[in-house]
Each structure stands twice: as C-alpha cells, then as structure tokens.
Design goal:
Length: 270
C-alpha cells in the first residue's frame, strides 16, 4: 500500500494545475490512526505570472486549505522559466482507521487561478488512497460448533474472524460445566480441536478466542452439548438412549443405572 501520493487537478491552459500531495509520517498502533503530512500548491510554467483566487482542499473530509476572498491571494512570477510548484499551504493531520486497522483516505483539491493576459483557470481533482493497515488484535471467532459427541470427548470447530488484519497464531478454548464456559482451557493453532477428559452424561459449555502478534481478542459466543451417558440403541436409523426397565412385583419399572465417575457413583441416564 502507498505511503505517499498526489492528486492533480484537471490541466488548464499552459499546463497549469493545482495539486494536493501527502506523505505518511507515522502510525499509532494503540491509537489506531495515521499521521499524514500534506501540501497544497499550484504548478505553473515559464513566462507567466499567477494570481490564485478561490480554492479549497480536503484530507479525509477535513478542510485543510481555504481561500474564498476572490482576490489574488497568492501572486508569483516564474523567473526561472521552468515548471515549478507554488506552495500554498502545508501541515499534518491525524486520520483515524477502521476497527480492523484498514483505512482508505480521500483527498481533493479545487483552486481557481488567474494567469497574466489570459482567463481564469479552474483546476480540481480527487482521488482515494488505501493507507497501510495498522495491526489490530484479532476479532472474536465464530461460535464453535460441536460434533462427534462421545462419553468423554467432543469435537469443536470454528471460523477465524474475517476482519482479522494479521494471521492468528493461537486459539484458546475455554470450557466447563459453568454456563460462562470457564473452568478449563486448552490451545491449538488450528480451527478444530478434540476436547478430551470429559465426564459422561454432563452438559459442557465451550468458547474460543484468538491471538496474533499484536494481542488476544475477545471470546466467541458460547455453545453447549451433553456428553453421552449409558447405553444407546439404533431405532429407525436414529440413535436413542436405551432406557432399561425391570419387572418388580409384576410391574415394569424404570431401572436407574449408575456408574462410578471419578470415584463417585452417579446416575448414568437422567
């Protein structure tokens, strides 16, 4: 992306034209803005004098040059007989960038000049320039999707935020039985991860955040699912919990199967 540029107005008689030039002076990563140096002027050829009248110029929509008095505000004669710039104004301006660090800046110039023995010339032009992107923290990834749910494992998958300006170097997955998905963390450089060591028959919550060379972004939305508990049977092409019953006193009653999890006996089917 360019670090400098220039907008020239339409060429008038004798190849006169107004211009606005810019150059990138610096960028602030914490502030997310660029500092541009700018200069407004008029190019004019040999054997003529110039009286510049009404005119204006903008950088990023901000008026940086304004002369609306209608008189010869700047008057000069090119005694060097060569095409030279006549500087009118210069300065610097802060240009805020978008949240993702990108920015396209618009510059325009419109100046009317009087030439000795000739007509008034209106010279104007406009152009857009894409400034170098300022690195930002990555955005939140998509809410993770859950698949291949088993007794002690699940598979997670998510997408990188399309607004990330730099490559993601690491993803952190936070998960647990609390609804805010806290309690455990694990990392990966990929957008998929198998979470292991879960307990059967328990609802878990999951969220993901990304890290790049600038910093770490916010967490994604939270997804949840319950790990498999007890036995399953396939009925009409669909896997369903196998609910065991026992006959007690001539009456069929629901059997409550238990399993030992981390040294504690718990119901394996709710």
């Amino acid at each position: 992306m360019p670090t400098s540029g220039q907008v020239n107005g339409d060429v008038g008689s004798l190849n006169d034209y107004a211009y606005i030039a810019w150059q990138l002076a610096s960028q602030s990563i914490p502030g997310n803005y660029s500092v541009l140096n700018w200069q407004v002027g008029w190019y004019y050829p040999a054997f003529t004098c110039r009286g510049l009248r009404q005119g204006s110029a903008h950088v990023n929509g901000t008026l940086v040059y304004n002369d609306q008095d209608g008189g010869d505000g700047v008057h000069a004669y090119n005694s060097g007989h060569n095409h030279v710039p006549l500087g009118l104004a210069s300065g610097s301006i802060n240009v805020p960038h978008n949240a993702d660090g990108t920015k396209t800046v618009t510059l325009d110039v419109s100046i009317r000049g009087w030439e000795g023995g000739g007509p008034n010339l209106l010279s104007d032009g406009s152009a857009n320039f894409a400034l170098p992107t300022i690195p930002r923290d990555p955005g939140a990834p998509s809410t993770p999707t859950i698949s291949n749910v088993e007794q002690t494992t699940v598979d997670l998958a998510w997408s990188q935020n399309p607004a990330d300006g730099l490559p993601v170097t690491l993803y952190t997955i936070s998960y647990g039985t609390a609804t805010d998905a806290t309690g455990n963390t694990t990392t990966t450089a990929n957008t998929i991860k198998t979470i292991t060591g879960l307990s059967p028959g328990v609802k878990y919550y999951f969220k993901v955040k990304a890290t790049n060379t600038v910093g770490t972004g916010p967490y994604s939305g939270i997804s949840n699912d319950t790990t498999v508990a007890g036995a399953y049977v396939r009925s009409s092409g669909v896997w369903k919990k196998a609910i065991p019953y026992v006959r007690d006193g001539g009456v069929w009653k629901l059997a409550r199967p238990y399993g030992k999890i981390l040294g504690i006996w718990k119901k394996s089917i709710n």
